[in-house]
Amino acid sequence: MTDRDLPRGMRDDAHETWPPPALIESFLGNFNFEFRPGEDTDIADTAVAQAAARRFRDVLGRYASGVTVVTSMSGDEPVGMTCQSFSSVSLDPPLVTFIPAKTSRAWPLMQRAGHFCVNFLADGQQELSNVMASRGVDKFAGLEWSLSKTGAPMFDGIVGHVDCTVHAVHEAGDHHIVVGRVQDMDFTSDADGSSPDPLLYFQGGYRTLR
Prior knowledge:
By secondary structure, the chain is α+β, with helices and mostly antiparallel strands.
């Protein structure tokens, strides 16, 4: 896919806010079923299987989601990954979930740390999403962040965050369902009480509320 290969029905100028091809391939649609750059899949290499997988992603790609970056620490080194498969689970106790692929490089490091922070990205943070979806050696270089209460990286300018300890992990096909128990949370607001608009993802591209 090139930067100008846009789905049918999109405006001609949509490429101006279009993510790079590697990121689109890492999401492959939306929701809980993204594949990440450099990760293998177990889908059979047949025309029928590939067509079924593409149909699966195309349909679920019609469900718009927010964009998050899940972070933690591996020793003294920060780790993070872009993730759309995030959701609330329970109010009592307060639980949330995200769903990394079994081939994820970041998740095993987070699991060993025992904690993670989910950063809700704001409109304008597309590049942060792109960087965290890449396979760069130092994805945190030049980024502004501080430590959450559990000790995970928390970025400046986000819409909000939830800070969690690992509560449970369940296998689900080629992914893990990670349930986190919320230890701390907050959202960003201006003096007038308004919050920044979120960064959205729909049909393989970034969107905003405007």
